[in-house]
Design brief:
With 148 residues, the protein is mainly α. It has one domain. The protein is 55% helix and 0% strand. The two termini are 17 Å apart.
Length: 148
């Protein structure tokens, strides 16, 4: 099937997991365009979507997507958050991104990309003062209940 999402998303993820991934595409409302949180929304889009513009690559920040090559912004983001800047972000928005990061960490077949998002997920759950789920726990929580 021809789809804008990467093949592994439909091959390895339940429908509920796919829904969580798609929900993460929306950036945090009410913040400036250059807010650090927008960086991670762009990186998630680049992780999950195929490039629809054959004349460009995801190497360049297109404003909609960005590569997932470096972990330094993750550290900077969560260091700032530990100093109180997490209060600027709605928990609802953050949990969408955090759950998507968890899914990518467990399901993405590209190890460097999975590792990037695993690191984000582990930093995020530490910031939220909760424990990580195993892949089996996540799969059970996001299992489909459908007859098709």
């Amino acid at each position: 099937m021809n789809s804008v999402v990467q093949e592994w998303v439909s091959e390895k993820c339940s429908w509920k997991q796919q829904t969580v991934l798609l929900a993460s595409f929306r950036g945090c409302d009410g913040l400036p365009k250059q807010d650090p949180s927008k960086l991670f929304t762009k990186k998630m889009r680049a992780t999950l979507l195929k490039n629809a513009d054959a004349t460009s690559t995801f190497i360049v920040d297109t404003g909609f997507t960005l590569t997932t090559e470096h972990k330094e912004p993750i550290d900077d983001f969560f260091i700032d958050c530990s100093r109180g800047s997490m209060d600027a972000y709605p928990v609802h928005w953050f949990l969408h991104l955090l759950q998507a990061a968890e899914i990518v960490a467990y399901k993405c077949p590209i190890e460097s990309v999975a590792e990037y998002w695993r690191y984000f997920y582990l930093c995020g759950i530490k910031a939220m003062h909760v424990n990580p789920e195993t892949e089996q726990q996540m799969d059970a929580r996001l299992a489909d209940n459908r007859d098709c």
